[in-house]
Amino acid sequence: MIELFPVILFYAFAAILIGAGAAVIVARNPVHAALFLVLAFFSGASLWMMLEAEFLAISLVLVYVGAVMVLFLFVVMMLDINLDRLREGFWRYFPIGGLVATLMVAELVLASTSRRFTTLGAGAAAAPANYSNTRELGMLLYTTYLYPFELAAVILLVAIVAAIALTLRRRSNTKYQNPAEQVRVKRQDRVRMVDIARGETTTD
Amino acid sequence: MAESQTLFDLLWQVLHHPLVWNLLKIVLIVLPMLGSVAYLTLAERKVIGYMQVRVGPNRVGPLGLLQPIADALKLITKEIVVPSDANSVLFILAPVMIIMPAMAAWAVVPFTPELVLANVDAGLLYIMAITSMGVYGVVVAGWASNSKYAFLGAMRSAAQIVAYEIAMGFALVGVLVMSHSLNLVDIVKAQESPLGILQWNIVPLFPLFLVYLISGVAETNRAPFDVAEGESEIVAGFHVEYSGMTFAVFFLAEYANMILVAALTSLMFLGGWLSPLPVIPFTTIPLLPSGLFWLLAKTGFILFLFLWFRATFPRYRYDQIMRLGWKVFIPIALVWLLVVATLMQAPLRQLPLINIWFH
User: Which of B87, B129, B151 lies nearest to residue A61, judging by beta carbons?
Assistant: First the structure.
């Protein structure tokens, strides 16, 4: 009974993952497709969680579901996508796409049924009760793999700077604000008291 | 007699099945939470009422105490109108998507060291991941409504929530550095000492506390950062097309999120269930015991701040919100993170005063 529960969970998450993955490419509406991709990420994270890789699972949700897909959805909603033009060549490319997909499935089945591919279940059970996946991952990243990790961080930083530099442009007719100046403003900068005698008018 | 005995045994066994037992615990967290949400709406109207020299709701029941129930009954009996050409599936799904994370985050929130549904090691990460999913409800609601006002509200909200999440995340990194743990129970335990209030994270991490609290107000779309529903510009923002119970669910989610942010602020910066004065200063005589009461009092105080802000500040302009998030809070959080990391290093952390927090 207890042993059966994780198996049921695994197949449920896997079925949702495959279903959502298929729906991403089949869905007629791009917003639906993006939301199905979110579901696929979430199911994938659940599967990782079952492997006790909780740090990776939560990072997947935090980064892809929480940030990347929100911006993706943001863009997809604002674009006016012509679905008919997108689907034009669907049947023409279907045979070659289907062939690639079938080959990939066949390769996966061959690889996973070979004798060299042992299941993880036996190894994972050996972990002690106070084993922290997050701590182990951090230890490895900041000791053994420190330089590759820092290198990856620098490359990402360069990519961020490059992306901003490519899209940054200064238009001559844009009005910029200086918040410091706005905060420092005093009454006498804005208000001018005038004495108006009866019957007289001011020039402004 | 024997038959009733076996029936009782059976009931006992069913109750102790992990699935049933956990479901029961979830109900025991969610029901008081929903009750607090209902009475928070009343508290808000009362507090703002008195701040504006009014009385607030006082007609339904004694002192208006039955007002939330009357409101709930009204909303339940109202018709749910789905706009023509709206995407009806996503339109109904959006409120569900917004309230789910607001509830699910409570799974790892500890009330006392023992009273916690799931005492997981990656609790802080879990909270950050789950709460970051709340934005989908807002975005999907805005898009599925097929209305320009709703869409504008959703766009504003999405940009705002993503921006402030980063500042919030950095503030939490400071907490994580201080307590060497992602486990919420351990985070509170790291703030425990005879010094009481001096040992809480709010003292060494005061700038991060401010960043977290203000970002929490922005994350929950509360005034003065409520441009997502700015009544005067886009009528009510992302939930303008919603009526009846679907509208009520958005409301519930907003208040549930407020309570969550308040509880997390109390746990991470204000010492959770710890007492501010556990012993009489410079002695070992016990004074005020720690307990659940302190967590509730601190959460209540932060919630009062939320209401106070709403009654006090005018709404921010949208570009000012973005500037505050990106150009003020993120640099403050980053700089303070560096300060904390430096103070933790060997020669500095042994200096008097500094060694109170870094040992």
Answer: B129
A30 at interface of B, judged by CB pairs closer than 8 A: no
Residue A121 has pLDDT above 60, yes or no: no
Does A52 share its domain with A99? no
Under 8 Å CB pairs connecting chains A and B tally to 66
Q: Return the closest-CA partner of residue B106 out of B11, B7, B28, B218.
A: B28
**Any domain includes A189:** no
What local confidence, expressed as pLDDT, does residue A126 receive? Answer: 54
The CATH number of residue A61's host domain is: 1.20.120.1200
Asked whether the beta carbons of residue A67 and residue B158 sit closer than 8 angstroms, the reply is no
A49 and A21 within one domain: yes
Instruction: Decide if A182 is inside a domain.
Output: no
Judge if A15 and A74 occupy the same domain: yes
Same domain, A12 and A66: yes
Number of structural domains chain A divides into: 3
Q: Are residues A36 and A70 in the same domain?
A: yes
Q: Is residue A11 domain-shared with residue A45, that is, in the same domain?
A: yes
Instruction: Give the mutation candidate from B130, B146, B164, B324 for the A interface (greatest A CB count, under 10 A).
Output: B130
Is some CB atom of chain B closer than 8 A to the CB atom of A71?
Answer: yes
Q: State whether A77 and B151 contact (CB < 8 Å).
A: yes
Q: Which residues of B touch A32 (CB under 8 A)?
A: 90
pLDDT higher than 70, residue A22:
yes
Domain hosting residue A156, numbered range: 131-168
What are the mean pLDDT values of chain B's consecutive 10-residue runs (359 residues total)?
Answer: 70 78 86 89 90 87 86 86 81 88 88 80 85 85 84 82 87 87 86 80 88 90 76 72 85 89 91 81 75 88 92 84 88 91 78 71
Give the pLDDT band (50/70/90) at residue A43. Answer: very high
Give yes or no for A131 touching B (CB within 8 A).
no
Same domain, A50 and A95: no
Q: Residue A50: inside a domain, yes or no?
A: yes
Residue A31 within a domain: yes
Judgement on whether residues A13 and A63 belong to the same structural domain of the protein = yes
Question: Residue B321 is encoded by which pair of tokens?
Answer: 């919100």
Question: Rounded to whole angstroms, how far apart are CA atoms B266 and B302?
Answer: 8
pTM of the predicted model as reported, rounded to 2 decimal places: 0.84
